[in-house]
Amino acid sequence: MVEIYQRLLSAYGPQGWWPGESRFEVMVGAILTQATAWRNVERAIERLKAAGALSPEKLASLSEEELAELVRPAGFFRQKTRRLRALLRLIRQHGDVEGLLSLPAGELRRKLLALPGIGPETADSILLYAAGYPVFVVDAYTKRILHRLGLLPDEKAGYEEVQELFEKELPRDPKLYGEYHALLVRHAKDHCRTRPRCPGCPLAPVCKSFKGQGDF
Ligand code: SF4
Q: Is 166 inside any structural domain?
């Protein structure tokens, strides 16, 4: 796992994740990015900022319709509106963003997973990038890359199983985890796409699926 990280970092450089000016913005982004491209999230965040609504208090003062309209560019905007409002209620139960994010990691994760539409990937993105806990974020790109490298027998392996592969081998360092996840996303977009572009791939020397022509 360490060698893969070093190869990706050498090839792509630091990715500067997670984009966001505040911990609250990171949390909002983690929900808005579900099932959509990041550029759509950026458009929604820009609209929230332009409306002066990117704080828990301001967001909570909006009606469901007003909030839905602002986050519409992120897609699935009615579902995401309900998820954001559930997150706002959880924040309010703990006083403020800092109160919520200062919960122990296990408790915070359980509370986030209990919210509608928040799965392990979104919860762990919040734990890692907003709260700074050393929790490795797994997504479909992670599974695809590991499977092709020959490190994951089944691409449909469970979330926690894949997470453990990273967490048992890497130092528990949130900066490392954050960078590693971002690099895997970058790699899945640049080389290890649905139809992989193997020539020039920085992981080719350690990849069991390497094909010179990228012809799967
Ligand atoms: S060599 Fe091909 S299959 Fe292997 S990681 Fe690179 S792009 Fe993916």
A: yes
